[in-house]
Amino acid sequence: MNARIRAVFEDAGVRGWLHAVALDEPDLTVEVDADGIVPLASVYKLPLLAGFCRLVDLGELDPRQQLTLDPSTKTGGPTGLSTFADPVTASLRDLALSMMTLSDNASADALLDIVRLPRLAELLKSFGLQRTWVRRGTAGNLRDLQRRTRTNDPDAALAVLADNDQTDPAGVYEAVNASASSARDMTLLLRRLWAGELLSPEQTEFAKATMHRQVFMHRLASGFPHDGVRVAGKTGTFGALRHEVGVVTLPGGTAYAIAVFTLAARGDVRQPRVDAAIGEAARVAVDLLR
Amino acid sequence: MLTERHLQIFIALAEEQHFGDAARVVGITQPPLSQGLRRLEALVGAKLFERGAGRVELTPAGAALLPYARRALTSIEELHQAAVARDPEGPEIRLGLAPEVPPSAGAAVAAASGAVIPGSRVTVVTASTSSLINQVNTGRLTLAAVLHPVVLDGLEAGPVSLLPTWALAPAGFVDDEVVGLRQLKGLPVAIRPRTEAPAARDLFVDTLALHRPTGGTVVVTDERAGLAMTAAGQAIVVTADPALTAPGVTRHRLADDPLPLRLRLVWSRTRTPFLRPNDVIAQLTEALGAS
């Protein structure tokens, strides 16, 4: 049944992992290596969002609390507050919004510092996620990559991964030391989130609305070129890793949680065939479940 | 009981100074590595490493015992080698070559493979990159030289070898000995089917399109067909084979070598007959690139 999805991955030149499940019928699934543990890249921002919202529910964090990000200490990156030249002050919930919609590294690491890794680990366990580990944020990821590539700045380190003429340094795509999860665990998180089992109605709504405001449409959403289909998602990109996890809602309301992880053979920064293959694999999975 | 594996763990940790990296070198995961180290430390009655944040360093006791461990492991490996050499049949090394590998390079790798294990028998097959990956995965091949980039599916892979390529064009098509891809316009470049190695083929075609906006490609079954089409004035062949030639065809170096042939040796970590696969692959990679 999943041979078609494997063929999509093979054609795109990627190793792929996928889990798709109907929200209303959890026994209906489509799986390709769904229990493989894969480094999450920026998909870790989804469990972080869930943890943040839970702490808001518990009254431990005030979503309106103002935080100032200083250019000299914040994490760099291609989007959002990461790119700003001057100090920025925003509320925690706006940082969460920027983290989720733009995959803003500076906002994400600032939130992770506030939520804290050990607390987040406890929360993820309480959510029933047995195979999800948030071990470090983006800054930690880039530091590890610089160590492995023996480079002094993140851009030079990423350039090593993008070069098709040399071998990837050992361990850069290994899940052991990185934030990692399985496709099955990510759809479990989405399914429980969408069902309102993890958070209060207000925070559930905030998390869903935030994911529906995802600006990147080149992956999951590209498989559903119809405005009647709603796609809420979170992407992840690091070197040859390209992921997206999300919820696809058909006209009429039937919804599916989908996690697609890929590791491309090519190193190039821009790989539109792989982005499209993520959408294509998701669409095939949904069609199989319909 | 002290085992070969304990020695491997000791030496790998001393060299890599990192649990994850050492586990990869030994070919196991981190938990059995940590467990093996604890058992070894209990056996020798000394703490061998200081475990710090992200770093692992030899203790004075570890540094003192390391040379003995190295000598012991070398002796065990020599024992294995001697045992293999006494086997009249000898182990079989089944080598796979992608069709893009130049004949001389394939021959050099095969010769070097046989030299690694004295008394071994080398058999060679040619198949597409995707088929070779599958055959190494299922144990039908010992190792293979495949196109890079390729989806490895958990296989081990050596460094990337870059082989320079030449353009073969119909006589009279271009005059210069060294040409830019842009000069080779008006004729399609012969390429093999995309499904044989989608990522490598896409990289080739994307690079070609970047340097040469027109001309396109034509799919051929093999280099023989491509060469024939070139002789007939219908195509251009890009090849890493320094000897491929035919009447009516001229050979041109490509300026800045924009389309190198990227090759990698792949093998299965769990099925390799080589005691030190990384060392062997380094030798074979040299053979691949030096021919």
TrEMBL record, chain A:
Entry's Pfam families?
Beta-lactamase2
Domain Beta-lactamase class A catalytic span(s) in chain numbering:
26-262
What GO biological process terms does the UniProt entry carry, in alphabetical order?
Answer: beta-lactam antibiotic catabolic process; response to antibiotic
From the UniProt record, which GO molecular function terms apply?
beta-lactamase activity
- State the InterPro entries in the record: Beta-lactam/transpept-like, Beta-lactam_cat, Beta-lactam_class-A
Name of the featured protein: Beta-lactamase class A
What is the taxonomic lineage of the source species?
Answer: Bacteria, Bacillati, Actinomycetota, Actinomycetes, Propionibacteriales
From TrEMBL, chain B:
Q: Where is the HTH lysR-type domain?
A: 2-59
Q: Does the keyword Transcription regulation apply?
A: yes
Which segment of the chain is annotated as a signal peptide?
A: none
Record's protein name: DNA-binding transcriptional LysR family regulator
Write out the entry's keywords from A to Z.
DNA-binding, Transcription, Transcription regulation
Can the keyword DNA-binding be found in this entry's annotation?
A: yes
Under the heading Pfam families, the entry gives: HTH_1 (PF00126), LysR_substrate (PF03466)
Cellular-component GO terms for this entry: protein-DNA complex
**Family, per the entry?**
Belongs to the LysR transcriptional regulatory family.
Q: Which GO terms describe its molecular function?
A: DNA binding; DNA-binding transcription factor activity
Annotated source species: Kribbella rubisoli
